[in-house]
Write a structure and sequence with these properties.
Layout lengths: L38 H17 L13 E10 L2 E11 L5 E7 L3 E23 L2 E29 L2 E14 L2 E6 L7 H13 L1 H8 L1 H21 L7
Antiparallel strand pairs: 1-2, 2-4, 3-4, 4-5, 5-6, 5-7
Bound molecules: 2-acetamido-2-deoxy-beta-D-glucopyranose (NAG).
Keywords: Biological rhythms, Signal
Organism: Tribolium castaneum (Red flour beetle)
Pfam families: JHBP (PF06585)
């Protein structure tokens, strides 16, 4: 199913960058020679090596601590469906693993595995899911188990001070889960019995509701990966990565 999603991830990664000389690059970013036949294996090893450093946060690059990660707002809107999550806390990113990666001067293609991604926040929902009209506000818990997130993006080389850098453009993500759990407390504005029946129905039909309720998972992961990769590529010249 195709739909339009409008997402606002306000102030994601607004951590100020500590001023420093532009040539310093994060020491956990290692290069792989793209002409080497083992390039993909090398890139995979290096990406997984870098993850624990990135997850702790790197002020010099402007990456905040990622687990837990606080996001002020995620907002999704399509057709007649609206879902916003405020004061969001995302956890589980510390166990992120890259299972395949290909990076070149034209494209980026990688799969990230996140075993347990948990998104907690205050929701406001108004719209149809399955055949139900959902309306309400309250605490929300969205949990994505066994996620494989396939990220594809264009890469555009550009010059800055006569040095070649790579730009990460227009990431697209597809994902599969082994299970999703949803809990929207106070749905239908406080009808307890109906509320727990609705949550039960959403969980029994988790795969069918992912089209609508999966949007926060998809957009959160996309924006986080986009921010991290972009911040690193902004600082590290192409020839120190490829
Ligand atoms: C969120 O839901 C998951 C899955 O049901 C559960 O394991 C976790 O404890 C919940 N977290 C909170 C803070 O309620």
């Amino acid at each position: 199913m195709k739909y339009q999603v409008l997402v606002l991830v306000v102030a994601l990664f607004c951590t100020p960058v500590v001023p420093q000389s532009p040539q310093t690059r994060p020491s956990y970013i290692k290069s792989c020679d793209e002409k080497n036949p083992n390039f993909k294996t090398c890139a995979l090893e290096n990406a997984n090596y870098a993850i624990p450093f990135i997850v702790k946060g790197d002020k010099q690059v402007g990456i905040p601590r990622l687990d837990p990660l606080d996001l002020p707002l995620i907002e999704i809107e399509h057709n007649n469906f609206k879902l916003s999550l405020k004061d969001v806390q995302v956890s589980g990113l510390k166990d992120i693993k890259v299972t395949s990666i290909d990076l070149g001067r034209t494209g980026f293609d990688a799969v990230f595995h996140i075993e347990n991604l948990n998104i907690i926040g205050t929701y406001d929902i108004d719209g149809k899911v399955l055949l139900l009209t959902l309306k309400g506000q309250g605490p929300a818990n969205i949990t994505a188990v066994g996620g494989d997130y396939h990220v594809k993006a264009k890469i555009e080389p550009y010059q800055k001070n006569d040095i070649e850098y790579l730009k990460f453009v227009d990431p697209q993500i597809d994902f599969t889960l082994t299970r999703a759990y949803f809990n929207f407390e106070n749905i239908l504005n406080g009808n307890q019995e109906l509320g727990s029946e609705i949550n039960q129905l959403l969980n029994e039909n988790w795969q069918d509701v992912l089209n609508d309720l999966g949007a926060p998972i998809k957009e959160t992961v996309t924006r986080i990966i986009e921010s991290i990769v972009s911040k690193i590529l902004e600082r590290v010249p192409a020839n120190e990565i490829l």
